[in-house]
Amino acid sequence: MDLRIQKTYEALFALEDIREIFRESLPTGPDADGEKEIKRIAEELKKTISDIESGTGQPKVRAIGNSLPIRDREEAYINIQPIQAAGRLTADARKAIISYGDGYSACDQCRKPFRLDKIEKPCIAGFHRELAEFLGMDEARVVPGARRGFQAVTSTLIEKGDIAIATSLSHYTEFLAVENSHGQIREIPADKNNIITADSAAEKIEEVIRKEGKTPKLLMIDHFDYTYANEHDVYGIAKVAKQYDIPLLYNGAYSVGVMPVDGRKIGADFVVGSGHKSMASAAPSGVLAATSEWAEEVFRTTQITGDVTNRRFGIKEVEMLGCTLMGAPLFTMMASFPHVVERTKHWDDEITKISFLLDRMLAIKGTTVLSEYPRKHALTKVDTTDSFDTVSKTHKKRGFYFSSEMSKRGIAGVFPGATKQWKLSTYGLSWEKVRYLADSFDEIAEKYNLEVAK
């Protein structure tokens, strides 16, 4: 780890140690021993700050607690791991963790009706309204990840034996959400270009009606799938769903928070997004939004009554199990939200960056792009079987040489040993970093005598 990064963490930890003294003190302030300890830590902190300025000193903290290593992936490396690219916390989100990391911090000012999305201080209620507007929907809730959004919808719409339609490129959590409701999945096949089309969706619906004698209860479509990040015809498929009167769930795990998404324009009944994947939020976090037509069902309130106590639980929402995100995940999403809204306005810039990098990579003979090309998303699957993988045949490290070469250059995110087919994302990277990536791939290729077109 870079010494200045190490010392920065040590400075942050020292401040937390001081903070802990205040937490352990009476409201009147620390006692004499506490004041003495604050002064001692402050003196050490000054030395640490000096080490940061000069780049000198020795590491003092090796782990958090007994065994948790310090994570410097985002500080020391260019991280091209697709599932992490758009989930990097903003500085404001990291500050929110410092202030609101306690488990039930969202509940400090909870008043009747005792529901998360009704809390006004801090303005969680207002954030929910802004979130719905941002997604072009009528109502929204924060949930513990996109998968819990799928689960809320399937639990509402799917009963035992009911059929839901997904695709041959759908995420596994959509399948599990349907299975959890004892439903069945039928898949729309992708075409030869790994694209899901409206015609294929209509054909699948007709096939289900013809063979099973019933209409599917739900159609789930990923805007960009997790394998290739190809763009699927969500607008056309939404029209097909409407023709058959089938509710449409728009899976925006790789779109909500990185590009403009308007559920009304798309024709979606439900919009699901991932906070930790695409909204610069701590995991687990996600969003679920619905039109007014469906909000009353998916956000239905409890009606159950205890037979001994006659207890009822007010307006607690069944699919939310009363309340959902209560601490760090929620507040990081709220703190990042203004930045997320702004960055969606610059989606074209992100496409330009990935296109630049891929053009440079394609100049390395034998490299191909498995995703649709030209690209429409920063996440991309490439095939280097005939380029970088050829080196692994004779290298003593086999396929691990590639990730090792990248690590030497401060690049992380490719699974160790992967040299054939692998995914990357340039989302959120500066042009300086994108050019550095391109140059690094060239350097590795040239080092091992791979042909690179100039």
Automatic annotation (TrEMBL):
Q: Which Pfam families match?
A: SepSecS
Q: What is its EC number?
A: 2.5.1.73
- Name its GO BP terms in alphabetical order: translation
Tell me the SUPFAM superfamilies matching this sequence.
PLP-dependent transferases
Q: Name one GO molecular function term.
A: Sep-tRNA:Cys-tRNA synthase activity
Q: Which cofactor does it need?
A: pyridoxal 5'-phosphate
Per its UniProt record, what Gene3D superfamilies does this chain match?
Answer: Aspartate Aminotransferase, domain 1, Type I PLP-dependent aspartate aminotransferase-like (Major domain)
UniProt keywords (A-Z) are: Protein biosynthesis, Pyridoxal phosphate, Transferase
Kindly give the InterPro entries that the UniProt entry links to this protein: PyrdxlP-dep_Trfase (IPR015424), PyrdxlP-dep_Trfase_major (IPR015421), PyrdxlP-dep_Trfase_small (IPR015422), Sep_Cys-tRNA_synth_arc (IPR013375), SepSecS/SepCysS (IPR008829)
**Modified-residue entries (N6-(pyridoxal phosphate)lysine), positions:** 277
Which transformation does this protein catalyse, written as a reaction? O-phospho-L-seryl-tRNA(Cys) + hydrogen sulfide + H(+) = L-cysteinyl-tRNA(Cys) + phosphate
Q: Where does this protein hold pyridoxal 5'-phosphate? A: 146-147, 251, 274-276
- The broad enzyme category this protein falls into is transferase
Task: Provide the assembly information.
Answer: Homodimer. Interacts with SepRS.
Role of this protein: Converts O-phospho-L-seryl-tRNA(Cys) (Sep-tRNA(Cys)) to L-cysteinyl-tRNA(Cys) (Cys-tRNA(Cys)).
Name the NCBIfam families on file.
Answer: PRK09331.1, SepCysS
The similarity comment for this entry is:
Belongs to the SepCysS family.
Write down what this protein is called.
O-phospho-L-seryl-tRNA:Cys-tRNA synthase
